[in-house]
């Protein structure tokens, strides 16, 4: 929203959720309550605010989805159908993120290309493949301007991890600066594609702004780096040598991670609309530690 508001004006970008926003978010511009399962309310918001673009992020992530399959199906599939119908009815440009989780054990893993077998084994992945296919179907049949990026694990200081399989890659930075000890629920050699949130946001805005004639696909992989818990820990130790990591693999999350790509082939995104990441592992680690450290200092908390 911050990026879009700079370009399009504060009042022209409306954030929504079913959760109360932090005071910072609330003060930064328009925020409304919107439940994606409430079709009438969504329609009212779109009509009353003369919405032209819709960015649909609401979802239950992979690990939390496995713990509550019925709710994940409702939010990730029924909610998506509401959004697709409204986008079509109101000629909106629609962005829906997909994920590395849209692939499964029978997909090529190193690298996973844009087009290949997709047989995910989580309700999250199944719902994301469904979203990719529904959006593309409505694009080809009715001309819906549907755009979808498959994000790697996204790493950010601003939000607490939302119940995904890649959450450890956020938590490890907080633990490094608080207790100096991180207990990892994945095995040390588990490699997954990851991305700094600044790259993820920039990719999304650049992709949304790309002229339609440049797009040869409606769903693209985007990549920045791939690392294992051991590799990110080693990079953090260059700044905080005392970091201790112990491993206690969680059966559910480890088996999800083992079914996902270890690397993404994003050559189509690079060719079609010029995607290039800025953050590699070194830059990511420096930025995350600096940002968390200054946040802790503001809150009067010590760094370990
Ligand atoms: N974080 C990642 O690493 C990652 C990677 C790939 C794709 N994505 C995708 O990006 C999107 C956002 O992910 P995130 O990490 O911010 O997840 P998150 O869990 O932090 O946020 C999801 C949001 O959806 C909201 N929500 C839940 N039920 C809702 C409902 N009924 N109506 C409206 N909102 C509802 C939640 O309140 C929450 O704020 C998801 O679609 C996810 O699949 C995320
Ligand atoms: C990878 C992504 O979709 C999310 N962070 C998850 O782990 O579920």
Automatic annotation (TrEMBL):
Query: Pfam families from the xrefs?
Result: Epimerase
GO MF annotation: an example: L-threonine 3-dehydrogenase activity
SUPFAM superfamilies hit by this protein: NAD(P)-binding Rossmann-fold domains
Q: Which reaction does it catalyse?
A: L-threonine + NAD(+) = (2S)-2-amino-3-oxobutanoate + NADH + H(+)
Question: Which EC numbers does the record give?
Answer: 1.1.1.103
InterPro entries in the record: Epimerase_deHydtase (IPR001509), NAD(P)-bd_dom_sf (IPR036291), NAD(P)_epim/dehydratase (IPR051225)
Q: In which pathway does it act?
A: Amino-acid degradation; L-threonine degradation via oxydo-reductase pathway; glycine from L-threonine: step 1/2
GO biological process terms held by the UniProt record: L-threonine catabolic process
Taking every annotated instance into account, which residue ranges of this chain make up the domain NAD-dependent epimerase/dehydratase? 26-223
Similarity field: Belongs to the NAD(P)-dependent epimerase/dehydratase family.
Summarize the protein's role.
Answer: Catalyzes the NAD(+)-dependent oxidation of L-threonine to 2-amino-3-ketobutyrate, mediating L-threonine catabolism.
Indicate what this protein is called per its UniProt record: L-threonine 3-dehydrogenase, mitochondrial
Task: State the organism named in the record.
Answer: Takifugu rubripes (Japanese pufferfish)
Lineage start:
Eukaryota, Metazoa, Chordata, Craniata, Vertebrata
